[in-house]
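FORM 7B: Structural annotation worksheet

SECTION A. Query
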Amino acid sequence: MPALLIKPGTATFIGFPYPPNGKVKIFLEASSPVDLFVCNEQQRPQISSVADAQAKGIFVLGGQSKIDNAFVDIPAAWKGTSWYVLIGNAGAEAAAVYVTVNDA
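SECTION B. Predicted structure
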């Protein structure tokens, strides 16, 4: 996946099909800390902050500049639908981000 440039105070998301075994491995490197969320289509527009997402039970890795192969279980209820990695930049400067998502 190419590097992304995420402006301050914004987020971007990438959709994926449900993985065959329900598990993925996420790798991320960023030039400054970013927040990573794993969510479904209904949850995606509801994410406004790390604390808000955590309160809603959304998987969050907040304030990360490097994630070395985080293993994430994608809920079985999401089979047959897309799921998303949403990356938010709450910082004051743009963040260059490289992220890969693979079946685990």
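SECTION C. Observations
Residues 50-55 form the longest helix (6 residues). The mean pLDDT is 95.

SECTION D. Sign-off
Analyst initials: ____
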